[in-house]
Known about the structure:
With 175 residues, this protein is an all-alpha fold. It has 2 domains: 3-54, Homeodomain-like (Arc Repressor Mutant, subunit A, Orthogonal Bundle), CATH 1.10.10.60; 59-174, Orthogonal Bundle (Tetracycline Repressor, domain 2), CATH 1.10.357.10. It contains 10 helices and no strands. It starts with a helix and ends with a helix. It comes from Arenivirga flava.
Amino acid sequence: xxxxxDAIHRAAARLFRERGYARTSVRxxxxxxxxxxxxxxxxxxxxEPLFLDTVALExxxxxxxxxxxxxxxxxxxxxxxxxxxxxxxxxxxxxxxxADGVADRLRTEHELHFVxxxxxxxEGPDADLRARLAASVIGGLLHSLWVVGDEGxxxxxxxxxxxxxxxxxxxxxxx
Length: 175
């Protein structure tokens, strides 16, 4: 990646995660990166493609490896420990979900990073349904924690939250 392209990418990632899509302009990104706004367009094609490039979950970021019988608890622990990075990406995508192309990306991220990995763990005729329900358990928890700011969940004992949510997720994994 070129120096200016890298600087633009870093600036955009930070601004989109801090301010959101709507409150971040190409001019803001260029200013933060120390480049001309035209260079942002030249390198990335516009604000939306740059947003989509900078706010993506990495497949390896989530705990799908390890013993199946401890998956639920392990996954919940990992998800909550990775809080800031996962939260920032999740919130950036949710806040921008009404922008053209972003809703499609949100669906794609959901499918690629939640439904498909869960489906790969499961067997049986209802594997797809269980994978989608497992993804919805995760998505619902993230929404409650980070979009709604559910004080009961935010202040809950972390081990109790991991145990209960992990058990719910494990029940879907076990079938």
